[in-house]
Design brief:
single chain; 434 Repressor (Amino-terminal Domain); Serine Threonine Protein Phosphatase 5, Tetratricopeptide repeat; 3 domains; 15 helices; about 70% helix; globular
Length: about 280
Amino acid sequence: MSDDTTFSVQLGQNLKQARRAKQLTQKQLAAGICAQSLISAIEAGDYLPNAVVFARLCQRLGLSMDQAVLAHYPEITQQVAFNRQVEQMCNQHDYRALADYLATSELASHLITDRDLAIFYYYRGVANYQGRHDASGAQRDLKLSLTLVDERDGLRPLILSASGCFNLQAGHVKLGQQQFEQAQQLIAALPYDENFNCVAYQLGLCQFKAGQFDLATQTLQAGVQLITKQQSHYLLADTLVLMAAALDQRGEKIAAQTAQAEGQLLAALFKLQLYQF
């Protein structure tokens, strides 16, 4: 099964579950938006709606972007409550609360598989850096996480990207660039995962903060292209808003206004909290 087919099927299943939870018929969901036959095709995984139809369906169903599409965070096996708590804090960008939560959690001592441990230390590394500004502690956790996953694990690009971002912001330019290059090479070789959308965003953010507005624009444009090519929405709003800031610094006011408006519209439609850079 191709990535596009997998996406269509999962999207259809999510929308179908949400429709049933709202006790709506296909006809009621479609009313004023599209034909009932289109809802049937979407739910069967045979058709991907365009952005306008998709947005209206999500609004009617009360779905956020992350609930409707495949965007998901790496999850630890059989730890539903932990995974939901982490997801909620990440969506709110409340990394201090996440760091406090992980510091008090005894979960790590009960985890068995290397991958589950890698996920735990990945989250703790990111939370310690973003929430507590503990760069050394964050890098220790990320290094440990990296040793626990194999070369073709989809978690590996995320770990490399986070570590690369922290290294670039700390002035370790060569190491940071190498880690981003490794992450991008892995993304090109691995089956697409929506979590990969964060790599272009993180690299673009580092370039923006370093005053490299031309590079940031190029990186973020490539990120937007990847997201839209894969029929994804995850991090699209954040990427557009950051790209708008880079374009504005380049003096491309009209393009900046367009990207800003698109990003803010997506955030408003899907009730997203944008990352404050």
